[in-house]
């Protein structure tokens, strides 16, 4: 098992190079043929903002960008809206719940604006089928790239 883990660790810098060398595309103009599983990176004006992983890249990107997507679907946009409205802390009380925030007269429009913003970002992705390698690479890439919207806190 150690050999498998070591090979995953050895692959991380190579995968990062592959990801960063991809010519960025627009998230709302996805190519017809894309890898199914992997890691994706949202950037804006050369600043890397968010790394995500998924078993369906196309569908996940569409969820991040769909203007009608809920807080559970557009998690990156929700984090951007939290940052833009200075509502950084999650609440586990009735006040401040995600659904309640979506309906808030200040946060709701900020959430929609964040989804619009993401639609215009640069997108890169790399195919990774192994779930363990996906998890390791998501953490590795977000740490190396210092993506401000990644959070590995337990909730």
Question: How do the strands line up in the largest sheet?
Answer: 2-1-3
- N-to-C span: 30 Å
Question: What's the pLDDT, averaged over the residues?
Answer: 92
Question: What is the overall silhouette?
Answer: globular
| Percentage of residues assigned to helices | 40-55%
What series of H and E elements makes up the topology? HEEHHHHEH
State Rg: 16 Å
- How many strands, which pairing sense, and closed or not: the largest β-sheet? 3 strands, antiparallel
Kindly name the structural category.
alpha+beta
If helices are DSSP runs of H or I spanning 4 or more residues, what is the number of helices? 6
Ranges with pLDDT <50 over ≥5 residues?
A: none
Strand segment tally: 3
Strand content: 5-15%
Account of the 3D structure:
The chain has 155 residues and is of the alpha+beta class. It contains six helices and three strands, in the order αββααααβα. The protein has helices spanning 2-21, 57-65, 75-84, 98-103, 107-119, 131-145; strands at residues 38-44, 47-54, 122-127. A three-stranded antiparallel sheet has the order 2-1-3, with helices on both faces. Strand 1 and strand 2 form a beta hairpin. Helix 1 crosses helix 6 (131-145). The longest helix is centred in the N-terminal third of the chain and has 20 residues, at 2-21. The chain is globular. The two termini are 30 Å apart. The mean pLDDT is 92.
Layout of helices and strands, plus pairs?
Blueprint lengths: L1 H20 L16 E7 L2 E8 L2 H9 L9 H10 L13 H6 L3 H13 L2 E6 L3 H15 L10
Antiparallel strand pairs: 1-2, 1-3
In short:
The protein is of the alpha+beta class. It has helices at 2-21, 57-65, 75-84, 98-103, 107-119, 131-145; strands at 38-44, 47-54, 122-127.
């Amino acid at each position: 098992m150690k050999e498998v883990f070591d090979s995953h660790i050895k692959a991380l810098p190579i995968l990062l190079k592959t990801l960063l060398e991809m010519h960025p595309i627009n998230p709302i103009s996805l190519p017809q043929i894309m890898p199914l599983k992997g890691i994706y990176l949202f950037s804006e004006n050369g600043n890397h903002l968010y790394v995500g992983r998924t078993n369906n890249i196309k569908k996940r990107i569409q969820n991040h960008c769909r203007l009608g997507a809920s807080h559970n679907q557009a998690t990156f946009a929700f984090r951007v809206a939290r940052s833009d409205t200075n509502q950084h802390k999650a609440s586990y009380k009735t006040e401040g719940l995600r659904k309640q925030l979506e309906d808030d007269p200040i946060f709701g429009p900020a959430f929609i604006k964040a989804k619009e913003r993401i639609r215009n970002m640069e997108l890169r992705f790399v195919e990774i089928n192994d779930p363990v390698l996906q998890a390791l690479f998501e953490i590795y890439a977000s740490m190396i790239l210092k993506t401000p919207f990644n959070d590995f806190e337990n909730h």
